[in-house]
What does this fold into?
Amino acid sequence: MLPSSESALIVSDALARAFKEQKPAEQGEVDVLAILAAAPQALRVVEFDDYAGDVFEGIAESLAWLGENDDAQGERAGEAR
It folds into this structure.
């Protein structure tokens, strides 16, 4: 059974604007390097709820940044060889 429109999640205008303001990895206010260092075994996921630019370019920029800066990712790649 599908939920009714009465139970649908309503996203406020402020939250919708915040989603649009998301940035690729390490281009915003979040210290992504510190987060990665604190969780070296965690799965790396690039996610945009929304994005003002081309979402695929934003994902590509984030993945490129991770490839260059995530020491744990490099170590896991070396283990796979």
